[in-house]
Amino acid sequence: MLPNDFYSTIENTASAEFKDRGSKFIAYAFPVKNIAECKQRLNDLKKLHPKATHHCFAYRIGFSGDNFRASDAGEPSGSAGRPILGQIDSRGLTNVMIIVIRYFGGTLLGTGGLINAYKSAASMVLQLIPVVRKPVESIFKIHFDYTRLNEVLNIIKQANGRIIKQEIQLFCNVTIAVPNNRLLEFNNKIGNLNLEEGSLQQTQEDF
């Protein structure tokens, strides 16, 4: 089985609070699928905490390893975003965003104190959420005649695929997700149906 057949993530949200010398750090963890969701989560928390001193965050998305960001949001360089991202990475998670809101308590913590505070807040919130192991999936769109519906649905089921959306009429359009470790089986069985050329198309859309 290939290393990229499965990934670890979270499905729930949570919040946790860490305090140090009067400063309060409130960490929020979210499951996310794309950068648009990350921006929305950040905007929501800025509205929820308009008087906070800093809104620091980190996220990692996808399976390539290069879709991530860590923001210090005005804190000294490397003192906030990187420690938050480090907690995501230390657990081997992806499709996760953590935002840590800071309310300044009047005492400077120094770079070391900030690193510890942001790291601790991020660690605390992740401890509240179960880690789930999910299959890495490939997304396909299938176009076929209604008379082949049962055959196509059976193949999807046999490959542990899931239907994302469907339009069932005289001609059917179905968007599905198939686990990568079942792709060979799925492609062979769909190929044996001898559907029209171009009936099966892989897509990179987010679902």
Record the SSE blueprint:
Layout: E1 6-9, E2 14-20, E3 23-31, H1 35-48, E4 54-60, E5 68-71, H2 81-90, E6 96-103, H3 110-126, E7 132-135, E8 137-145, H4 149-158, E9 162-167, E10 171-179, H5 183-192, E11 200-203
Antiparallel strand pairs: 1-7, 2-3, 3-6, 4-5, 4-6, 8-10, 8-11, 9-10
Can you walk through the features of this model?
The protein has 207 residues and is α+β, with helices and mostly antiparallel strands. It folds into two domains: 3-133, Ribosomal Protein S5, domain 2 (2-Layer Sandwich); 136-203, Alpha-Beta Plaits (2-Layer Sandwich), CATH 3.30.70.240. The protein has five helices and eleven strands; from the N terminus they run E-E-E-H-E-E-H-E-H-E-E-H-E-E-H-E. It has helices at 35-48, 81-90, 110-126, 149-158, 183-192, and strands at residues 6-9, 14-20, 23-31, 54-60, 68-71, 96-103, 132-135, 137-145, 162-167, 171-179, 200-203. The strands form three sheets. The chain has a five-stranded antiparallel beta sheet with strand order 2-3-6-4-5, sandwiched between helices. Helix 2 runs parallel beside helix 3 (110-126). The longest helix is centred in the middle third of the chain and has 17 residues, at 110-126.
